[in-house]
Amino acid sequence: MIDVILVTAAYIAAQMLADIASLKIVLFAGMSMDAGTLIYPITFTLRDLVHKVTGRRGARVIIIAAALINLFMAGLFWFVSQLPYDPAAAPQPDWNAVLSPVWRIVTASIIAEVLAELVDTEAYHLWVTKITRRFQWMRVLVSNSISIPLDSLIFCWAAFGGVYPTSVVWSIFQANVLLKGAVTVVSLPTIYFVRKEHDS
Q1: Is the CB of residue 71 less than 8 Å from the CB of residue 103?
Q2: Residues with Cβ < 8 Å from 9, sequence gap 6 or more?
Q3: Among 52, 43, 50, 34, which Cα is nearest to 16's?
Q4: Is the N end or the C end of the chain the one with fewer CB atoms within 10 Å?
Q5: What kind and span of H or E run contains 183?
């Protein structure tokens, strides 16, 4: 039970932090990318942990729940950005300029997350049920190698296509895939952190 709570909380928290950070485009290791990519890659492996302890149905529910929570968060940020500053308060930083949601990025992020994570779920489930329950690190590597490019392609072009030059969008895509792939490799051992495995 503790395993389920911890991996679910970590997955949703990482999704939320990634969506907030995605509002900023940064240069990282010489490549353009949205700053959400600094934390978002771990969600793929966390989703695999969720799948391991809750099964395919549980993973699907948590993916949709995370999307709804992120949508609610964006709506709350938008509502707060519409409220006037209290003139009696001390000078405040321009909260609106930082956290007011860019709906194109929010929409692209949520669509990419849901589609890619659901594909990840099916790839993981297929590996476990049709191939082997052994070599747990391999199930993470295989499912993530399918979902990472899909997620990056959908997000980058839906969020930034037509906004930035094509070369910048492809640079963001490449940075996303490279960093997510590197995080996948580094995080492979975490699949062994939870011992009890759900049967479906």
Answers
A1: no
A2: none
A3: 43
A4: N
A5: helix 166-187
CA distance 4 to 10: 10
pLDDT digits (tens, 9 = 90+) for 5-45: 999 999 999 999 998 888 888 888 887 778 888 899 899 99
DSSP codes joined into one string, 57-115:
HHHHHHHHHHHHHHHHHHHHHHHHHHSPP-TTSPP---HHHHHS--HHHHHHHHHHHHH
Tell me how far apart the alpha carbons of residues 76 and 79 are, in angstroms, rounded to a whole number.
5
Residues 6+ apart with CB under 8 A from 121: 47, 51, 56, 59, 60, 63, 143
pTM of this structure: 0.87
Q: ∠181-178-162 over CA atoms, to 5°?
A: 125
Domain spans in the chain, listed from the N-terminal domain onward: 2-84+96-189
Encoding tokens for residue 60?
Answer: 């699907």
**Amino acid code (one letter) for 7:** V
Q: 3-state class of 29 per DSSP?
A: coil
25-61 burial, b for 16+ CB within 10 Å, e for fewer? beeeeebbbbbbbbbbbbbbbbbbbbbbbbbbebbbe
Nearest to 35 by CA among 17, 21, 54: 21
**The two three-digit tokens of residue 57, written as one number:** 């149905």
